[in-house]
Structures are given as structure tokens and as C-alpha cells.
Amino acid sequence: MILRNSLLNLIGLGGPLLAAIFTIPYLIAELGPERFGLLTLIWAVVSYFGLFDFGLGRALTQQLAITWSRDENQDTPSITGTAYLIMLVLGLCAGLIMALVAPLLVGQIKSIPNNSEAINALYAMAGAMPFIVLTSGFRGVLEARQAFGVINLIRIPMGLFTFLGPAAVVWFDEPRLDLIAWVLAMGRVLGCLVHAWFASRSLPKEYRALVVKRAWVRPLCVNGGWLTVSNVISPLMGYIDRFIIGALVSTAAVTYYATPNEIVTKLWIFPAALTAVLFPTFAAQISRGGGEARALFKKVLLWLFLAMTPIVAVLILFAHEIMRLWINEDFANQSAAILRIFAVGILVNSLTHIPFTLIQSSGHARLTALIHLVEFPVFMVALWWFTINYGVEGSAWAWLLRIFFDTGLMFACAKHILAPRVATVKYG
Questions:
Q1: Distance CA 68, CA 223 (A)
Q2: Per the UniProt record, which residue ranges are transmembrane (predicted)?
Q3: CA 156, CA 23: separation in Å to the nearest integer?
Q4: CB–CB of 180/165 below 8 Å?
């Protein structure tokens, strides 16, 4: 079941990767390095603000998986209803914050072709933010139900639209970021509605009604709150480098950095395909004692290492050739070394997804939160220093050093949690 669902996730996540391969060169050529750099920043901002569910999507998955494993299905309406209401409020707050800070964010970036165009693009995505946040809640129900076939039936067209939508705007109209953003926003709204319908249909009729109960606020928010610390800081560390480069170097430099980054981070489809299935599975197994989780942990690490290593080796050995054939010779000269650095990091970081998922699904999200709270200021200082002194390639080295530090701490915590004495899920 785990392998089957992981393969479904891999298919769902791999479709957008193929779209990215074909559309990114076209978008770079039509938009130019400056505008494409801004488009990658918009993708980054939307992805980051989408985490304003404060970990409730994952907390909802965990709580439902534990509840159903204990045959306490009668609590389903109150768990889902309470989570949805909190997430709606958070989504509205996220949209408001994005709209308020849009001029400030744009003002911090160098060499912007059209400020008003970039600000209007962020306004468009701010309007879609409540729907983006709610989508994680509906997906959380589907993941708890192990409905990965349905999830990927939705994910494939949504992922394709992320890249094909901007390409279509450029093809039919003109290379304006605000038009692209409005098209992407409408896609997010539609995706939320489809997720909502399938999430409701996945539950038995007697459990589809939504009930809000104050008693569920604390268990959802406490664990979700710790999940949020990691879910906010970790992606921030993954995206902040682009803004630092834009502020210290230029938006064109962001393109040379973000494009190889887009290549390697798409390889996260392999750990993501596994961890989406592992999260509810680990939660249920650890709530029953944890012996099954120890065996599963070792097995999936081996699967992931065997799947990732050949791909990473190709990226390292043929980085220049890949960038030359994909974009052009000049682009390859600027970004091949960066691609090699990212390739090493993505192999290490992909393996780290397994202990990270184990820690959070076991109810010890506080551990990952504390790790990321320690990492963040150290990484910011290193990122600033490396970028100032070594430019774009220095930013990549700072990213790689953080990855190694993060991996060591995550595996140490996972070893502690998998010890036989840990047998129950805790909150906080």
C-alpha cells in the first residue's frame, strides 16, 4: 500500500516537472531574465504564504489518522469543522498581510522593470490566499483517508497549470506579471473547490457535517503550532536566498540562481511522494507502539537513496551540458557550478525528509521547530556573508552548509524517537 500510494504521488508530482522542463526556457526567453526572476519570486511568495495554515493541514491529517486507528470515528465532524474554520481565518489574515506588504517587498528588489505590475501581481495572489490555505486542510482529510489516487488526480492538472498558465498568458497576450498572477490565482481558487468536494465525498455520509468544538482547538493548534514553526522557517530558509540575491546583486542574478534550484528541488517529488504516505502511517504506527515504524523507517531510507543517487550523479557530472542544452551556452557558464552544489544538497536533504516526517508525525514537532529556530539566524548570517563575498555561487554554498547541519540534527532526533521506550504520540 505504501509503495503503491508513493508511486501515485510520484506520478502526480512528476507531471509538473515535465511541464517545467519545457516551459521555463520559453518563459525566460519571452519574459527576460528580470521579469522571470520576479516570476520565481512570486512563486516563492505564494508557496511561502500558503504555509499560513499554521501546520493545521498536517495536524488535521495526524489527528484524523490517530482517531480512526482507535475507532473513534464519531469525532470526525468536530475535528474537520474546527480545523476548517481556523484555517479560513488564517487564510484571510495571510491574504491581508500579503496585500499590505506587497509594496514593501517589491521596493526591496533591485532592477524591477515595472513596480506597479509586480505589486498588482502580489495583490492578485493575496486574493487567492484563503483558498490556498483551505486547500491544505481538504488535502489533509484526503491524506488521512489514504485517498492518494484522488489527490493526484487533482494535483496533476494543478501542477501543470502552474507552468502552462504563465506560458499561455505570454503566448496569447503579452509578458505581464500581473496577468500571469491573476491566471494563477483563478487556478488556485478552482483547485480549492475541487479539493473541498472530494474531501467531503471521501467521508461516510454521517460524518460529512461540519461541527465546531472548542475542545479540539487546543490539540490541533498546539501540535499545529509547533508544526508551523518548522513549516514557516524551513521554507523561508529555502526561499529567502532569492530575495537576498535580488537585494544584494540583481533580479537577473536571481534567474541564474533560481533556475538550477528549480531543477534540483523538483527532485523533492521522490521524498514528497513517500512522506505524504508516511505521515499518517507513522502517526498510526507510533500510537500503537512504534515497532513497525522502526522497520519502515530503515526501509524507506534505502528506497529513497537508491532512487535519488543515479539522478544526482548525472546532474553533477553533466551540469554544464544540461544547462547548455536546456537554455544556452551563456546560461550554462553562469549556473552550471550552482547546479552541482544544489545536486549534492538535494540528495542529502531528500533523505532528511524521512526523519523530519517521523519526528512530526510522532507528535514531537517541537524538536524540528527548535532545530529550525537555531538554524535560521546562523543561516541568515552565513547567507549574507557568502553572498556579499562570493556572489550567487556563495549563496549556494551557504544553502549547502545549512543542509548538512540540518540533516545531522534530524537524524539524531529520529534515533531518539525510534528508541523502544517511545511508544505514544504526544502533543507539543
A1: 18
A2: 7-29, 41-61, 82-106, 118-141, 153-173, 179-198, 239-259, 265-284, 296-318, 338-358, 370-390, 396-418
A3: 16
A4: yes
CB 335 within 8 A of CB 259: yes
Determine the Cα angle at 191 with ends 190 and 197, to 5°: 90
The three-state secondary structure class of 33 is helix
**Terminal-to-terminal C-alpha distance of the chain:** 30
Look-up of cell digits 504516505: 277
Tell me the residue type at 250: S
Provide the H-helix boundaries in 216-328: 217-248, 251-265, 269-287, 291-317, 319-326
CB 315 within 8 A of CB 322: yes
- What pTM value is reported for the model? 0.65
Q: What is the pLDDT of residues 390-406, one digit of tens each?
A: 888 899 999 999 999 99
Distance in angstroms (rounded) separating the CA atoms of residues 130 and 411: 35
426: left (phi over 0), alpha (psi -120 to 50) or beta: beta
**CB crowding 390-427: b at 16 or more within 10 Å, else e:** ebbbbbbbbbbbbbebbbebbbebbeebbeeebeebeb
The string of pLDDT tens digits covering residues 312-336 is 999 999 999 988 988 888 888 888 9
Give whole-number Cα distances, 256 to 79, 251, 341, in Å: 45, 9, 13
Calpha distance 200→193 (Å, rounded): 11
Total residue count of the chain as it appears in this document? 428
Coil vs helix vs strand at 210: coil
